[in-house]
């Protein structure tokens, strides 16, 4: 099971951040296949989460190279059918097939990327597995210490990546604050009366 620790509450994520998240979620399944030479039900939740992210990227966020910046289907509340929200399919069978193919392509690419990373960093994987056998849960600091033991450059890359993510979040927060300030300006204007 992979628990993502939010840096902050994120409503803004880039395509590359989402693809990295999908790659990370597929890492458990890939590691099983490489190390144990067999897969299990252990990574099923991560696989489901990865697929849901990619499906949303393709059908709701317009992040598909093949299908372009288009959304497919629209949300409909169907509580009386026992579902909170369903997606109404307003596209043809051929588009549905194209959506499925694009989801599959993105998942396959992320799986291959995860496989390449794990093969390259197998020494770290074994060290983390050993630490988890000794201690059931690793805190973020412990995890980063294991990585740093193998390569100082990797530690610097992680720190740089975290700073870039923080900067992205801060930029999004500034944008949100600017919008809120502008909304406040409009509210002030609404309350002005002329005599």
What descriptors fit this protein?
195 residues, disordered C terminus, Methane Monooxygenase Hydroxylase, Chain G, domain 1, 2 strands, single chain, globular, mainly alpha
Ends distance: 65 Å
What spatial order of strands do you see in the largest sheet?
1-2
The CATH homologous superfamily of one domain is named Peptidase M41
Classify the helix fraction into a percent range. Answer: 55-70%
What is the averaged pLDDT score?
A: 81
Give the amount of beta strand, in percent: under 5%
- In the CATH hierarchy, the third-tier topology of one domain is known as Methane Monooxygenase Hydroxylase, Chain G, domain 1
SSE-based structural type:
mainly alpha
Order of helices and strands: HHEEHHHH
| Number of E-type strands | 2
Q: What overall form do the CA principal axes indicate? A: globular
**Largest sheet composition:** 2 strands, antiparallel
Tally of DSSP helical segments: 6
Radius of gyration: 22 Å
Indicate the low-confidence ranges by residue numbers. Answer: 191-195
CATH architecture of one domain: Up-down Bundle
CATH classification class of one domain = Mainly Alpha
């Amino acid at each position: 099971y992979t628990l993502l620790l939010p840096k902050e509450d994120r409503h803004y994520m880039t395509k590359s951040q989402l693809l990295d998240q999908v790659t990370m979620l597929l890492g458990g399944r890939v590691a099983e296949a490489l190390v144990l030479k067999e897969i299990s039900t252990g990574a099923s939740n991560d696989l489901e989460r990865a697929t849901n992210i990619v499906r949303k990227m393709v059908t709701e966020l317009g992040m598909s190279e093949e299908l372009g910046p288009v959304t497919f289907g629209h949300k409909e509340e169907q509580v009386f059918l026992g579902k909170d929200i369903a997606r109404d399919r307003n596209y043809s069978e051929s588009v549905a097939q194209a959506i499925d193919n694009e989801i599959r392509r993105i998942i396959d690419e992320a799986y291959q990327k995860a496989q390449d990373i794990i093969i390259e960093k197998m020494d770290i994987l074994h060290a983390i597995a050993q630490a988890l056998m000794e201690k059931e849960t690793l805190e973020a600091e412990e995890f980063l210490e294991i990585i740093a033991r193998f390569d100082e450059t990797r530690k610097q890359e992680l720190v740089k990546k975290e700073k870039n993510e923080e900067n992205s979040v801060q930029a999004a927060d500034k944008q949100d604050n600017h919008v809120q300030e502008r909304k406040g300006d409009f509210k002030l204007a609404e309350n002005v009366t002329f005599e």
